[in-house]
Amino acid sequence: MQKILVVDDEPSIVRPLMFILKKKGYTVLTASNGVECLQMAQAEKPDLIFLDVMMPQKNGYEACQELKANPETKSIYVIILTARGVELSPEEKEQVQADEYMTKPFSPIKVVEKVNSILKDNY
């Protein structure tokens, strides 16, 4: 079964994502900050990570850079979750190295379509 790690410090984001993804048959892991994300990614090797930007201890951009710099986790597909109106320059996007960006709030249907597309194409 494919594993998805949802990293966000807001339960109002984590719970609906977890519910819809579990309902579609994915194993869902959660973390509430960038430090936990790195530990879980190393230990569990998820197929996909939804990674919030604004979190305590280590933000999503920093966590993504570390994931992509580590040979053991660099192939994990990372979707950065950003707040509406937060835009990165092309240079910043290159530095962060996320595979994709998704703006909050998002439709659960779009999330499932995106996950199915990514995991079907990559695995």
From TrEMBL:
Pfam family of the protein (one): Response_reg
Domain Response regulatory intervals: 3-119
Alphabetically, which GO biological process terms does the record hold?
phosphorelay signal transduction system
User: Which controlled-vocabulary keywords does the entry list?
Assistant: DNA-binding, Phosphoprotein, Transcription, Transcription regulation, Two-component regulatory system
Keyword Electron transport listed? The answer is no
Molecular function terms from GO: DNA binding
Transcription regulation recorded as keyword: yes
Name the InterPro entries for this protein.
Answer: Bact_response_regulator, CheY-like_superfamily, Sig_transdc_resp-reg_receiver
Q: Which SMART domains match?
A: REC
* Residues the record lists as 4-aspartylphosphate modifications: 52
This chain belongs to the protein called Two-component system response regulator
Classification from the root reads: Bacteria, candidate division KSB3
